[in-house]
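Summarise this fold before class:
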Amino acid sequence: MQTDRRMRGHERPNLRIAVMWGVVSLIFLAVGMQRLLQGQFPDPDDALRLVQVRDLLAGQGWFDLHQYRIDPPDGTLMHWSRLVDIPLALVILALSPFVGAPAAETAALIIVPLVTLGAILFVIGRLAWRLFDVDVAGISCLCMALFAPIVFQLQPMRIDHHGWQIFTVVLALWACSLRSAWKGGALAGLAMAVGATISLEILPMVAAFGGILALRWFRDHKDRWWLVGYMQALALGLIAAFFATRGIADLAQHCDVIAPAHLGFFAITAVCTGLIAAAPAIPRLALFGAFGAAGAAGLAFFGLSSPTCLMTPFAALDPLVRDFWYINVLEGRPLWEQKLAYALPSFVQLCIGLFTAIVLAVRSRDWLRQWWIEYSLLLAASILLSLFVWRSAAFAAVIAAIPIGWLATRLLKRLNRARGLAAKLTALGAIVLALLPSSPVAVAELMMPESGNVQTVLVEESSCEIRNQALTLNSLPQGTIFAPLDIGPAILVKSHHAVAATGHHRAEESMRDVILAFTSPEAEARQIVAAHESDYIVICTDLAEPRLFTAANPQGLAAQLVAGEAPDWLEPVEVGGPEEFRVWRVRE
């Protein structure tokens, strides 16, 4: 830290942050404008989130998390948190009387992601200002528009839970910089409690923050209250959020959300942490053993309460669902399974941030050196997590923003001072590497001729135009549609129909039935479709999913439908639109 922030009030960091929020928001709007105009959600989960909010506003119970239009009549119990529904519902409720519900929904699709972005930038900007100056604060905020994982998770129409989880991470990061151990630890714990309530995928970050605060205790016994405040607030926050969003109607030991077994684990470890802190100081080795005993006690309770949850939520997936669905959800897969031309530049950027944080640790002294050591460890943990779950790169990116902001500021000053072409080009190259590492890929794509035989496989690229064609289904009497998993959310958000299944693992049995029906001979498929009391079958022939089904069984139902050879128990229905969008009525 260069000088005490209280002596630099003239720098007006909030104004700089606000300006950068406006700039970054314009960039995000430009990036997402085509999607916005076409009503095209970045991900099927965003579409289904809007359906959930609509149902809540239409009178569905706060504690009732079923989606009744997936696998009717009982529906599917979703694992999503109501916390994410709150800002969307508030915006829609506030604007609907003035502009109508459709326009209010569109406004919410823009406002909520950008407000989330503003909250993240405020925390990052203030922290960067405290550590450096207003220039670094501004550049750190601007970096948000240059991190691909951040842009994807915070663009307009990206209304699923990831943006709010990113905010909880930066809030916990900021809390760790406060002067008060109790307040800082408690705020970090509450932030992580909210993040874990939204989704369990943040649990590795919960552990990472706990590990950092435990290191403070090992370094100085007086700093033990950081971890105590963190664990107490984490446990109490999880319990409060559980009862506020789930109530007491569903106390089952779900493995994919915070459940009673999780609450017991965190309550036990929090109590044990408090007891260890209240006892006289003990040697570090004994302290390590005490922490191990506390963790073992919590794990014992968790394992006895919910032994099946000792595995990951997806470990017990039906093999058919895993092979046809889970391994194809690339954002949840490891780095090495991504499109490396796009993923590797982002990974390089994260590594540059980590290297810069280490450099800052080496350059600093006293408490500031300890801060940057902890910062580097936290960033390293988040980068390690992103190796195995690529969408977690957004957590690493937001932490890397400050060191990369400092590096970019120094490089810009060096570029300004450089004399001679070679020095300027060197500084400029370093800036491009730090801020725009994907530039070579973009240039190569512009220079390379497009292949004429590239097959469309993504929903947003499909000639089927499901986002528009789903509206035409409203001309048909309301019923249940048997469709591939990827297009189910679009059908739900655009039409009044129900679907047999979507790509959400709580509907695992229905997902298996959909996959099995499309990959089975038509006689077996007919029995499965009838078992779901489906009224229609809908497919988009140029998407990846029907092609996977066709490749699995060239004589299966999907292969017949794609080839235009529907069995006689299906009656073609003409709803207009492109040839790739096909609808059949199921004959009784």
In short: The two ends are 74 Å apart (CA to CA).
